[in-house]
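COMPLEX REQUEST
Ligand: pyridoxal-5'-phosphate
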Amino acid sequence: MSEEKKEDAHLDNSSALATSLPHPDGFFGADKTYGGAFVPPPLEPIMKNVAEEYEKAKIDPQFLADLANLRKTYIGRPSPIYHCQNLSKKLGGAQIYLKREDLNHTGSHKINHCLGEALLARQMGKTKLIAETGAGQHGVALATAAALMQMECEIHMGEIDIKKEWPNVRRMQILGAKVVPATHGGKSLKEAVDSAFQAYMGDPEHMLFAIGSTVGPHPFPMMVRDFQAIVGFEAKEQFQEIAGPGKAPDILLACVGGGCNSLGLFTAFLDDPNVKLIGVEPAGHGLDKGEGHHSATLTLGKPAVLHGMKCYTLLNSQGDPASVHSCASGLDYPGVGPEHSFLKDAARVQYETATDEEVIDAFFELSRSEGIIPALESAHALAYAMKIAKDMPEDKKLLVNMSGRGDKDLDYVCDLHGDQYGIGKEGIFAGPTKHSK
Ligand SMILES: *Cc1c(COP(=O)(O)O)cnc(C)c1O
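STATUS: Structure written out below.
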C-alpha cells in the first residue's frame, strides 16, 4: 500500500470500523438501545446536515489528504509506542507498553478530533466553533484548531473551573478564543454545556458545536470515534514491528470519561477476539462511598437520555444526573458514549475501575521509573494495568493509551499528595510565588 492509501484506510469502512458502525439514525447495536439524536426539533435538520456532510467528507480524497497532512506536520503523528522496561521489571510480570498520545501537539489525544471537527466545519462553510470545556483541555485543543483554520472560537466554561484552571483560560485567550463564563447553578461543566448550547441555538447555521468526546447526539459519537481511530490503526502496525508480523498486544487498556481515547485505541482491534479490551473508570474515593464520590458510569449507571444521547448514566434519587467525583477532571462526567454502553452489554469490552489513591500511586510510579509524567486521566488506565501485570507471565504484553501528559496536574498532585512522596511544602517550596506588577 502507498503511504497515502494507508492514511486513508482508517476512515474507510474497513472491517474493524464496520463492526461498530451505528444505524443511520445513530443507534448502536442490533436492538438499538444506545445513541440516537435526542435534540429539540429546530436542531433536527442541523444535526442531519452535519451527519450528511460528514458522510461526504469521510470519503472525500481532499478532506482525507488535508487531515493526513495535518496529523503528520501539525500534531506530530504517528505517536510512538514505548516499552516501559524499568516499570515492567519492577512489577515482575507482563510487559507494559504505552501509546504516547501525550507527545501530541497540545499534550493529549484531544487534538485528533478537534482538527477533524474544525476541518469539517470549514468545509461546511461555518465560521465559528463553539464548545464547552471542564478543565479546559478540550477548550485549548479546539482553540488551537480554530486558530489554525482561522475560524472564530467560543468556549463556555464554568466560573468555578475558570478559577481552578486559570492557565488553560489564558492559553485559550492567547490562541484568540473567547472564553464565556457560565455563572448559573453549580457554575461547572454541566452549566457550561447548557450555556454553550444556548449560544449555539442562537445561530446554528454559522456555527459547529464541536463536542469534546464520543458523546452527544448522532453523528458526534461516530464522528469523534472515527477521528480518534487513527490511534489504534497506528498501534496495530507499530506493534507488528515490535512483536512480529500478525502479532497484537494481549490486552489494551484506556481510561474512560466520555470515551474517545479508549475508542480511539480499541476500534482497530474490535474484530480481533484475541485482543482483550479493558476500559478503566474512576472509582474516586471508593465505589462504596456512594454518590458524589466516584464517576464509574458503566460500572454503576443505568440507561437514560443525557445530552442528546441514550447511554449509561449515573442518576441520583430524583432521577437527575448524579454529582460525580474523580481526581481527574477529564473523567468526571455522569454519562458515557453510547458505543461504550453498547460494547458493555455486548461484553466486548471489560470495564474496571481505579481509585484516586491507586491513580496517584501510578502517577508517581511512571514519573520515577520511566521519566514520563502522565495525565491523571491516563494514570487510571496505567493503575489498572500495573495491578494485573504483576500476576501475568513475562511474555504477555499490555498496551496502555497514554492519553495525555500530566503538566496540568502538577499543582493538584503536589498540594494534596506531595508529602507522601517526599515533596516539601516548607519555605521556598510552599507554592508558586504570586507575581506583582
Ligand atoms: C479529556 C481527557 C480524557 C477523557 O476523555 P475521553 O473522551 O474519555 O478520552 C482522558 N485523558 C485526557 C488526557 C483528557 O484530556
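REMARKS: Residues 108, 110, 137, 213, 255-261, 330-331, 375, 377-378, 403-404 surround pyridoxal-5'-phosphate (CB under 6 Å). The two ends are 59 Å apart (CA to CA).
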